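Folding follows sequence. Below is one example:
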Amino acid sequence: MQLNILSGGAAQSVVTALADEFRAATGYELACTFSAVGAMKAKLLAGAPADLVILTQAVVAELVAGGQVLAGGCADLGRVRTGVAVRAGDAAPDIANPDTLRRALLAAEGIYLPDPQKATAGIHFARVLDILGIRGEVEARLRPYPNGNTAMRELAQAQGARLIGCTQVTEIKSTPGVTLVGVLPREFELATVYTVGVCAAAASPAMARRFAALLASEDTRALRSKAGFELGSA
């Protein structure tokens, strides 16, 4: 027995951490696909089997409106900010304001990011490069990957000097070999609420609701916070 989950990469560390506990309690394995939010939405709309989705609040709302996700099966997991990373042990660049961020990106030999067309953080970071007026200058040094987790793993293993990455904080914090420098400057802040939703075509709706409730519960609050989710007051 398995529960099929389509999720943005931001929630990967939390979902993975709960897999053994859920299997022990229910006998259900978690069959998860983690990738860019846009890619997961497209996969669901194309008919991929899914009991649960974990996507941005806005995208889940679209899916509720379209009838693919049940309105009564949704719960917010928390807010995730977008940050900057370097390899563990590398000097942390100054990213405190737009000017210093601009200089850090121009100095980088490689810039690692999630899909700039389908991933939440990748789309936003591409806009930041446009606002800074440097996209053309750094285009050849961009290293896009399907999702932020993959981008951070590649950054951790990359060779060279002055390498930098940008994705959601949860994806940075869960990747060995990279270090969170900090979140984007206030002018470029992106804080995204992630929501779990039960799919209308779920094969195991009761188990889907059970796992959704676990994800959003007080029992997993500390786990989500440690992973990089910002939570409201209890």
